[in-house]
From TrEMBL:
It comes from Halobacterium litoreum. SUPFAM superfamilies: ClpP/crotonase (SSF52096). PANTHER family: ENOYL-COA HYDRATASE (PTHR43802), IP11341P-RELATED (PTHR43802:SF1). This is Enoyl-CoA hydratase/isomerase family protein. Pfam families: ECH_1. Belongs to the enoyl-CoA hydratase/isomerase family. CDD domains: crotonase-like (cd06558).
Length: 225
């Protein structure tokens, strides 16, 4: 499910379910959390195997949820994304191919998002009667502003790499996102560790996460699948 490779300066975490477009199961969320949080390297680089970054939550998992288990699944995802956001390492998302739903949320939890020209992004939850509940409502608004966040979340539309760069969803469009992780890792490790928390947006994460998980559970209580 994950392929983790370590160098002295960079831990590379590959989501490795290409047949499922790297969709995340509960076990996959836990493994991802541990892989990032336990890294001793100054930089962690997260990317997807195959032709997608991450399709988000595994829909076979979601179809089996009810209201209570849906809220818990949302909280589980939030714990993983919060752990990525809080990791000591600088976490770089390298998006090549599709990022959908929870895949966008995963990218948003990282400190830096870079993508290839072939990347595309969509918050598709609304088309299924759901929404991104792994902290995505807050992080998307912080990343692109309220207007763009509303457009992406309420429409479910797909944006390409150029649109993602224009809105601030990604910082760069490059042929080799891994090179950006290596570039950052070439800087002083102590400076990176001190600088990272100073760049974080000050938001009421706990309250936003609670509201997100509760709302996600209410939608699943009506069994949209």
């Amino acid at each position: 499910m994950l392929d983790v490779t370590d160098t002295d300066a960079v831990r590379v975490v590959a989501l490795d379910r290409p047949a499922r477009r790297n969709a995340l199961t509960p076990a996959g969320l836990d493994a991802l959390r541990d892989a990032v949080a336990d890294a001793s390297q100054p930089v962690v680089y997260v990317h997807g195997a195959g032709d997608a970054f991450c399709a988000g939550a595994d829909l076979d998992t979601v179809r089996g949820l009810d209201g209570d288990s849906g809220s818990e699944f949302a909280r589980r995802g939030q714990r993983t994304m919060n752990a990525i956001e809080d990791a000591d390492s600088v976490v770089v998302a390298g998006v090549d191919g599709a990022a959908r739903g929870g895949g966008v949320e995963l990218a948003l939890a990282c400190d830096l998002r870079v993508c290839t020209p072939d990347a595309s992004f969509a918050e598709t939850g609304v088309t299924l009667g759901l929404f991104g509940a792994w902290g995505g409502t807050r992080r998307l608004r912080e990343a692109v502003g309220a207007t763009h966040a509303a457009d992406l979340s309420l429409s479910g539309r797909t944006v390409d790499a150029a649109d993602a760069r224009e809105t601030g969803l990604v910082s760069r469009v490059v042929d080799d996102p891994r090179a950006v992780a290596d570039e950052i890792a070439g800087n002083d490790a102590a400076a990176l560790r001190e600088l990272k928390p100073l760049l974080s947006v000050d938001a009421d994460r706990e309250e936003t996460d609670r509201r997100e998980a509760d709302a996600f559970g209410r939608l699943l209580a009506d069994d949209p699948f």
